[in-house]
Amino acid sequence: MDVAAQNKPTRIKTALKMMINPGEVVKQQMGKVPWPFSLSVSGLAFCLFFLQTGLDMFRANQISMTMVFIISGIGIVYGTLGVVLIASLAWGLSQGSQSSHSLGWTISSFALGYSATFVYALTGLVFSLALGWKTAVAFGITGVLWALRPNIFTIRAISGDRTAFSIALATLCGAILLFGWALLGRFGL
Amino acid sequence: MKTQLGYKNPALGSSGSFLPIYMCFTVFGILIGFNKAEFKIISLLMSVAISLVIGLLMVRILLLILNSGNPALKKETGNQFARESVSQGMIFVVPFTVLAVLAQVVLGWDTVMAFVSAAVMTAAASAGTEAMKRGARGIKNVILPSLLAFVVSTGWMLIVGLLP
Question: Are A149 and B126 within 8 A, CB to CB?
Answer without folding.
Answer: yes
